[in-house]
Write a structure and sequence with these properties.
Helix content is 38%, strand content 31%. By secondary structure, the chain is of the alpha+beta class. The protein has one domain: Alpha-Beta Plaits (2-Layer Sandwich), CATH 3.30.70.100. Helix 1 runs antiparallel to helix 3. The chain is flat and about 30 Å long.
């Protein structure tokens, strides 16, 4: 069953974060993932949530999403993301 990774990102070092933007897609694709949204316009419809840079990824399964996150291939990009941004990340299974 497909799974979606949703990330709310507050970039603290925009220049260095560009390196992350260059590195991350190859790791996402290697685990069967694809970007559904990546930093586009966000409009709050209800509530107090004010996302900054919102990213939504789709993976073939929740297991595959977690494999991507912890993979050796993604670690260099993940390290840069942790240095250059504050993030909140969840993974949710799709409706069957």
């Amino acid at each position: 069953m497909s799974a979606y990774v949703v990330v709310d990102i507050t970039v603290t070092d925009p220049q260095e974060y560009q390196t992350y933007i260059q590195l991350a897609p190859a790791a996402v694709e290697a685990f069967g993932g694809k970007y559904l949204a990546r930093g586009g316009k966000v409009e709050v419809l209800e509530g107090d949530w004010q996302p900054n840079r919102l990213v939504i990824l789709e993976f073939p399964s929740m297991e595959r999403a977690k494999e991507w996150l912890h993979s050796d291939l993604y670690q260099p990009a993940r390290h840069i993301r942790h240095k250059t941004a504050q993030t909140n990340m969840i993974v949710v299974e799709a409706v069957s």
